[in-house]
DNA sequence: GCTTGACCTAGAGTTAACTATAAGCCTTAA
DNA sequence: TTAAGGCTTATAGTTAACTCTAGGTCAAGC
């Protein structure tokens, strides 16, 4: 069975070895085994789990909450409902973030137009008396 | 002309007065005037500018870079191109964030399904030998 | 056998973005 | 005229998520 060293995993997941050790210290990787001399030995399934952790991080979840999830995973079937609820909550959260980004994008695009027009005119003075722009 | 105190602005923009003073200290609000006794006095146009600042923050722009933009604004027409370029860059950045969120959402939705199925079965053992899940 | 390089831990340092405190100044209502 | 409430500054503290350093172990190649 193929295994990986910490620096291979770091490369693969675009993280640093510092970050991986930090995650371990925070209890995010209780599943990673060691060689007889104490080096971390990552399995394929550990890589998968780390990808899920990265995904949860991408939703904006703080590490302490990710740790709760990992703990639930270790507890087995008894925590299936909590974990399901957590992912539903994450889903709602990501939807809200997307909506916020869409609104942000609207303003940014408006500004792009604003500056495009100003650049063509050579000045933004044209907007200074423009009530519409003032409300943006 | 209607003006606002710092706490009115904080309420309006869902920020704290601490945050507003911090922004001021960081040079994000050189336009805000003062009363004779030294209190900040916000105009409508200051609120608009703060909303643009909030928008830039929502794109993930660090405060120091927002300060650069504010400085450019003070320098007038000579910096129109820089400001335009900056907004184009922000736009690309937000698009990338949206794409990343979409990918994240796919994984989260997959996980929601996973747990829904596991809950219905009462166990996640059904997945333990499932090669497909291991690669997620 | 000894050097090199990758790994280990514990713990200190960094950074961004707040968040709070202390001490003090105006204005206003009792 | 004095007490309260909202403002001011300077500065210290907090938090999350790293990021780095020091000092050490271990396995492989010369």
From TrEMBL, chains A, B:
<keyword id="KW-0175">Coiled coil</keyword>
<dbReference type="InterPro" id="IPR000551">
    <property type="entry name" value="MerR-type_HTH_dom"/>
</dbReference>
<dbReference type="GO" id="GO:0003700">
    <property type="term" value="F:DNA-binding transcription factor activity"/>
</dbReference>
<keyword id="KW-0238">DNA-binding</keyword>
<dbReference type="GO" id="GO:0003677">
    <property type="term" value="F:DNA binding"/>
</dbReference>
<feature type="coiled-coil region">
    <location>
        <begin position="84"/>
        <end position="111"/>
    </location>
</feature>
<dbReference type="Pfam" id="PF13411">
    <property type="entry name" value="MerR_1"/>
</dbReference>
<protein>
    <submittedName>
        <fullName>DNA-binding transcriptional MerR regulator</fullName>
    </submittedName>
</protein>
<feature type="domain" description="HTH merR-type">
    <location>
        <begin position="3"/>
        <end position="72"/>
    </location>
</feature>
<dbReference type="InterPro" id="IPR009061">
    <property type="entry name" value="DNA-bd_dom_put_sf"/>
</dbReference>
<dbReference type="InterPro" id="IPR047057">
    <property type="entry name" value="MerR_fam"/>
</dbReference>
């Amino acid at each position: 069975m193929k295994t990986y060293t910490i620096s291979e995993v770091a490369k693969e997941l675009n993280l640093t070895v510092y970050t991986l050790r930090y995650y371990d210290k925070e209890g995010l990787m209780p599943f990673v085994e060691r060689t007889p001399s104490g080096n971390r030995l990552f399995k394929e399934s550990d890589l998968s789990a780390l990808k899920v952790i990265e995904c949860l991080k991408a939703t904006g979840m703080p590490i302490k909450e990710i740790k709760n999830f990992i703990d639930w995973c270790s507890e087995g079937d008894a925590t299936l409902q909590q974990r399901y609820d957590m992912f539903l909550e994450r889903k709602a959260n990501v939807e809200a973030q997307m909506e916020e980004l869409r609104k942000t994008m609207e303003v940014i695009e408006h500004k792009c137009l604003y500056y495009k027009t100003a650049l063509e005119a050579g000045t933004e003075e044209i907007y200074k008396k423009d009530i519409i722009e003032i409300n943006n």
